[in-house]
Design brief:
Length: 522
């Protein structure tokens, strides 16, 4: 098909009346079509998306481009910075000869710029601490994260009900553990009378699973002050959307904690954000880098929950973008919900790789202009094939795209630069304040100590009463005993004195008697 026909189809598919962001320029047969811009309509960016490709092909920079373009349009975003290379979005690019050459080929002027940034953290990293209480999770979501069976999930729900009925705040994991231990031991009788008997083997299993979650660092995440998701939707004084960069470089080996956080965040957004309907732009964009960490080792129940939220959260004006190496990392039920697909190069080193590439090619619209499975192995760094949705929700023609360069720094910030941005944060003082108010742990610990104190007092009282009875009986027995002892003692002393005197006399007399018998001269 001719180049003119290609340009005609491409421009028809990527020309929109409303606002859009520019990804880059269209390509055909390895040539960049000057001023043939590939645009993404703002109104479809709540239909979610995928950014995929092998390591080193430019996925992270594509994420950076989208986030900074959305920020410039007043749309805030949340970025999962797992590799630690997204902080540079807070500083303007210093420019480069290759950047100028790229933009000249596209026909788009390069203007260095910055995006307002807020650094967040789930653990000990620098930034605003993100926390949520156990009560906010609720028994159903927590049960799915802990992979409990139906019986165990039912017990967990009853324990949450017990905590609510008795005004026991379940804020962190130690609150939940103490409550489970209390209803299993000290408070089991009262609990059984009101809520029925629970199996100690089931509560033991629940406790072990909570401890497993703690060992992945969840004790740092659960607690107060709980993060308000509305703070992800802020804009600065210039009207730019604030880019919240969640620094999770220390969480790659803790997939359960990462999936726990993501699921809770999405559930909280869905529960609290109002319905937006068909807005002209998203309210919030969420970019999940290394998205396979969410789905690795996730239970079927957890995957079902993620799928449901992805389907429904669009109506809240939220777009979710998964960034991963291969589309097959994303479950098909989720992949089918993604409207924007940006596919960087894939590598075919093995027969398995080649099969995966053929499968990946089938995720994109049919085209007369490209051999997609072959093209996927030939894409250069900063190139991708793109398919989006038009204003009517229809997939646009597949187009090879020469991506624009990020307007911000394509590198990390220094420690001093990061500290300076964190020091200017308007919300860090509120969320980094340590709060540990009286909750289930403190209340139940007090009850246990009080009960133990009462038991000790009763035991002491009982022992005192026994001692008093023993003392009274002892005094009576001693009075009689004393009389007998006194009389006996007197007689005994008399006999002892007499015996000793006799022994002395007899000893002398005996000696004398012996001597007399031996010596006749007496």
């Amino acid at each position: 098909m001719s180049k003119e026909k290609f340009l005609e189809e491409m421009k028809a598919g990527y020309s929109f009346e409303g606002e859009s962001i520019i990804l880059g320029g269209a390509m055909l047969d390895g040539e960049v079509m000057h001023e043939s811009f590939v645009r993404i309509p703002m109104e479809t960016l709540n239909r979610h998306g995928l950014i995929a490709g092998a390591t080193g092909t430019g996925k992270t920079k594509t994420l950076q481009i989208l986030a900074e373009q959305l920020s410039a349009k007043g749309v805030p975003s949340l970025l999962m910075d797992i590799k630690g290379d997204l902080s540079g979005i807070a500083v303007a690019s210093s420019g480069h000869k290759k950047i100028d050459e790229r933009h000249e080929a596209i026909g788009l002027p390069f203007i260095a710029d910055i995006s307002p940034v807020e650094f967040l953290s789930l653990s000990g990293e620098k930034g605003v601490r993100l926390r949520a209480t156990v009560s906010e999770f609720g028994p159903i979501l927590l049960g799915k994260i802990l992979e409990l069976n139906d019986t165990q999930s039912g017990i967990l729900s009853v324990i949450f009900k017990y905590a609510d009925d008795n005004q026991l705040g379940l804020l962190d994991l130690k609150d939940l553990k103490k409550t489970i231990q209390y209803v299993t031991n000290e408070g089991k009788d009262a609990f059984k009378e009101e809520y029925g008997r629970i199996s100690t083997s089931s509560t033991g299993t629940i406790l072990r699973k909570i401890i497993e979650l703690e060992q992945q660092g969840a004790d740092l995440f659960f607690g107060e002050r709980s993060f308000d998701v509305d703070d992800l939707c802020r804009v600065n004084d210039e009207g730019k959307g604030i880019v919240s960069v969640l620094r999770v470089t220390d969480i790659q080996d803790k997939p359960k904690l990462f999936s726990t956080f993501m699921l809770q965040l999405l559930a909280e957004i869905y529960a609290t954000f109002p319905e937006e309907g068909d807005a002209d732009r998203p309210k919030l964009a969420i970019f999940i880098d290394e998205a396979h960490l969410i789905f690795d080792r996730a239970s079927d129940a957890l995957l079902d929950q993620i799928e449901v939220i992805v389907k429904l959260i669009r109506s809240k004006g939220v777009g979710i973008f998964f960034v991963t190496q291969n589309p097959t990392d994303i479950p098909e039920s989720v992949l089918s919900q993604l409207g924007l697909k940006i596919q960087h190069a894939l590598r075919a080193f093995t027969a398995k790789d080649r099969k995966a590439i053929k499968l990946a090619a089938q995720n994109y619209p049919l085209t007369d202009h490209y051999e997609v499975d072959q093209l996927l192995t030939e894409l250069g760094i900063g190139e991708a094939i793109v398919s989006a949705l038009d204003a009517k929700g229809r997939p646009t023609p597949l187009v090879q795209t020469f991506l624009r360069a990020p307007q911000s720094r394509m590198d990390i910030l220094s420690d001093n630069e990061m500290d300076d941005i964190i020091d200017r944060s308007k919300i860090i003082d509120r969320y980094n304040e340590e709060i540990d108010r009286d909750s289930a742990y403190e209340i139940l610990t007090g009850k246990i100590k009080e009960a133990q104190s009462e038991e000790i007092q009763e035991e002491l009282k009982s022992q005192q009463e026994k001692a008093q009875k023993t003392s009274t009986r002892g005094r009576k027995e001693k009075s009689t005993f004393d009389k007998v002892v006194n009389s006996t003692t007197t007689r005994q002393i008399g006999r002892t004195v007499a015996r000793e005197l006799t022994r002395g006399l007899l000893g002398i007399l005996g000696i004398r008697k012996t001597r007399r018998s031996k010596n006749s001269w007496f």
